[in-house]
C-alpha cells in the first residue's frame, strides 16, 4: 500500500461525518474545522480502504462499523493522560454518560475560551480540532465520542458503545 493511502486518524472523522448526506468538500472542511485539501486526501484514502461507497461521497457504513469495532483501538490506540480541562468525550458525554456509571471523566484538551469545559483525564482525539466539533458538527462530535469509548477498550463499556454506534448509524444488528 502506498504511504499516501494509509488510513489516518482524521479519515475516521471524515468517514463518520459522511454517514449522513454531505455537501461540497469545502463545506465539509468548514464543518470539520479542516482544510479542503485534508478532506480531499481523506476521501482518497477512505476510497482506497473500501470505506466509501463506490463512486459516491458516502460511507460504506457496514465496512466502517467493522473497522471501528474490530480494528480502531489497535490502529489508533489511546490512553488516559493527565488531568486537564477539556471537552467531555467517550463515556463522559451523551449518549454513553446516561448508560455508564463512571467515576472518572475523559476529555479532549481544549483552549481555555472553549465553552463547556470540564476537568478530566485527557486523551488525544482523532482530529486535532475535535473540540470545535461540539458547535460546528454536533452529530460528528457525538459519533467521535462514541468511537473514543471504543478506542479506550474498556470491556464493560464496549457493548454500550457498540449499541450506541449501531443506533447512530442505523445499522442495528449489523454483522461485524
Descriptive labels:
single chain, 176 residues, mainly alpha, 3-stranded mixed β-sheet, 8 helices, 3 strands, 43% helix, 9% strand
Q: Which regions have little confidence, pLDDT < 50, spanning 5+ residues?
A: 172-176
How far is the first residue's CA from the last residue's CA? 24 Å
- Per DSSP, the total helix count is 8
How are helices and strands ordered from N to C? Answer: HHHHHEEEHHH
Structural class by sheet pairing and helices: mainly alpha
Question: Can you tell me about this structure?
Answer:
The chain is mainly alpha-helical and 176 residues long. It has helices spanning 9-17, 25-31, 36-49, 61-70, 72-75, 133-136, 138-152, 158-169; strands at residues 83-88, 106-109, 118-122. Helix 2 packs across helix 3 (36-49) and helix 7 runs antiparallel to helix 8. The protein is globular, with a radius of gyration of 15 Å.
Task: Walk me through the topology.
Blueprint (H helix, E strand, L loop, with lengths): L8 H9 L7 H7 L4 H14 L11 H10 L1 H4 L7 E6 L17 E4 L8 E5 L10 H4 L1 H15 L5 H12 L7
Parallel strand pairs: 2-3
Antiparallel strand pairs: 1-2, 1-3
Amino acid at each position: 500500500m502506498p504511504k499516501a493511502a494509509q488510513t489516518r486518524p482524521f479519515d475516521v472523522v471524515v468517514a463518520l461525518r459522511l454517514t449522513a448526506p454531505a455537501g461540497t468538500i469545502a463545506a465539509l472542511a468548514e464543518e470539520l474545522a479542516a482544510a479542503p485539501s485534508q478532506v480531499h486526501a481523506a476521501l482518497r484514502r477512505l476510497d482506497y480502504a473500501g470505506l466509501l461507497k463506490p463512486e459516491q461521497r458516502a460511507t460504506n457504513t457496514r465496512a466502517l462499523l467493522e473497522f471501528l469495532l474490530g480494528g480502531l483501538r489497535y490502529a489508533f490506540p489511546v490512553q488516559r493522560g493527565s488531568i486537564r480541562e477539556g471537552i467531555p468525550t467517550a463515556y463522559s458525554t451523551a449518549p454513553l454518560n446516561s448508560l455508564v456509571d463512571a467515576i472518572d471523566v475523559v476529555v479532549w484538551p481544549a483552549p481555555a475560551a472553549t465553552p463547556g469545559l470540564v476537568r478530566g483525564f485527557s486523551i488525544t482525539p482523532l482530529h486535532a480540532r475535535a473540540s470545535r466539533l461540539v458547535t460546528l458538527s454536533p452529530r460528528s462530535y457525538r459519533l467521535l465520542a462514541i468511537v473514543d469509548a471504543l478506542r479506550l477498550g474498556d470491556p464493560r463499556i464496549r457493548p454500550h458503545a457498540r449499541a450506541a454506534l449501531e443506533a447512530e448509524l442505523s445499522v442495528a444488528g449489523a454483522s461485524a
